[in-house]
């Protein structure tokens, strides 16, 4: 017997019905191996070297979030070009030094890459995200639609470390008084951050919002200066090294004594 369909509301178009499994990122972007699916509370309490336990998801990272129409159309429109971008990022990841702050040419369809990234954020967030951002829905579902609303900004970085993470919209405070509203998807070799009416959580992130100014068929060579940022915790916006994490832990422990 086949598996029972999973019903719900499509995270993009809002139609209620059977949902398909959406790989985040696309399966061809190195997301074809089993991953551990665990509840957020399990992730948030684990240190850099602690094992995270949960259900093994054989098909890769993702969930049943999109109707078949959105899944098939968006995959056909943007998927292969996003995969090509990811392979180019992997080359840069392997070539770069520990910091990775070098300019590198990407030969891409910028609009297609960006629209696939935003599709991933629709899946990472609940169905209400689309209702609150109708212009973002139009941007993804209309291949010719250009430019994002000023409140939406997209950033990227090369990632290292021992964690993958995916978080919906969350508020992140900092010690200097800044407050960031953001969503994050970190899956090797690239991590992505979407901010809403906020500056990025870290100045080392490279902004790619300007990809939205290109048309669907515009193929460009774009130089980007990526930084390599470590992911050791499941906290969104946290790019501290293991040494920085342990130092903060020791200081907090001493302050409690």
Explain this structure:
The chain is 30% helix and 30% strand. With 257 residues, it is of the alpha+beta class. Strand 9 and strand 10 form a beta hairpin. It is globular and about 55 Å long. About 3% of the residues have low confidence.
Given the helix and strand composition, which structural class is it? alpha+beta
Number of helices: 6
The percentage helix is 25-40%
DSSP strand tally? 13
Shape category: globular
Q: Which series of helices and strands comes N to C?
A: EEEHEEHEHHHEEEEEEEH
Organism: Paenibacillus amylolyticus
Protein name: HNH endonuclease
Structure keywords:
alpha+beta, single chain, 257 residues, three-stranded antiparallel sheet, globular, six-stranded mixed sheet
Summarize the SSE layout with pairings.
Layout: E1 6-9, E2 16-23, E3 35-37, H1 40-44, E4 55-57, E5 62-66, H2 68-95, E6 102-108, H3 110-124, H4 128-132, H5 134-141, E7 152-161, E8 165-173, E9 179-187, E10 190-196, E11 206-207, E12 220-226, E13 228-231, H6 242-256
Parallel strand pairs: 7-13
Antiparallel strand pairs: 1-2, 2-5, 3-4, 6-12, 7-10, 7-11, 8-9, 9-10
In short:
The chain is an alpha+beta fold and 257 residues long. It has six helices and 13 strands.
């Amino acid at each position: 017997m086949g598996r029972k369909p999973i019903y719900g509301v499509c995270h993009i178009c809002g139609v209620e019905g059977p949902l398909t499994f959406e790989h985040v990122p696309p399966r061809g972007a190195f997301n074809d191996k089993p991953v551990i699916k665990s509840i957020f509370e399990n992730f948030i309490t684990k240190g850099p070297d602690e094992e995270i336990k949960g259900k093994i998801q054989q098909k890769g990272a993702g969930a049943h979030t999109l109707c078949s129409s959105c899944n098939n159309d968006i995959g056909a429109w943007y998927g292969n070009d996003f995969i090509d971008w990811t392979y180019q990022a992997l080359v840069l990841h392997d070539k770069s030094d520990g910091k990775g702050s070098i300019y590198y040419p990407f030969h891409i369809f910028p609009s297609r890459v960006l629209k696939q990234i935003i599709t991933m954020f629709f899946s990472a967030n609940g169905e209400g995200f689309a209702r609150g951002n109708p212009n973002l829905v139009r941007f993804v579902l209309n291949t010719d639609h250009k430019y994002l609303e000023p409140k939406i900004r997209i950033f990227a970085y090369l990632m290292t470390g021992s964690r993958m993470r995916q978080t919906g919209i969350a508020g992140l405070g900092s010690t200097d008084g800044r407050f960031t509203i953001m969503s994050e998807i970190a899956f090797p070799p690239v991590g992505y951050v979407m901010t809403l009416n906020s500056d990025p959580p870290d100045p080392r992130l490279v902004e790619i919002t300007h990809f939205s100014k290109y048309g669907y068929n515009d193929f460009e060579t774009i130089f980007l200066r990526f930084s390599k940022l470590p992911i050791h915790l499941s906290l969104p916006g946290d790019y501290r090294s293991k040494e920085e994490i342990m130092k903060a832990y020791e200081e907090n422990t001493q302050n409690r004594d």
